[in-house]
Design a protein that fits this description.
Blueprint (H helix, E strand, L loop, with lengths): L9 E2 L8 E2 H4 L2 H18 L4 E5 L7 H15 L3 E5 L3 H4 L6 E7 L4 E7 L2 H12 L6 H13 L3
Parallel strand pairs: 3-4
Antiparallel strand pairs: 1-2, 5-6
Amino acid sequence: ASGIDQVNLMISLNKGMKFVSLKEAASGGENSRLMLALKTVFNKINPYDVMIFDEIDVGISGNIAFKVSKKIEEISSSSQVIVISHLVQVVANGDNHLFVYKEDGEEKTTSHIKYLTEEELVREVAKMLSLDKVSESSLASSRELINSFKR
């Protein structure tokens, strides 16, 4: 605030596009992906002990979500990573899963965290795939997706 320099990060987010101010160019999803890219580079230079990503996958889907999950996996090879996500591609690629939920009591709402077993994870991913209507096909798709990430 009391310095004499101002910095404007210029970026071209796609091949063939001109460089423009990050503030003008990036959507929420693009900002998230840029931060993930920067964190990946910085983590290679000097690994963090723990990195927390709170919905870094907002505004993305499909193949980009898969790529984001692979970047997070790359970071996890040198740092402990905690990810809060609502995307199946990111959730299915995790090693350990905690489910956070709330319960309304008579006088107050309480938050809870539960460690998911493998079968509970399959069910939760199936809910994500099928808008909470778990069926045999959503369970099969869930298992297939989770197994596709097995290392």
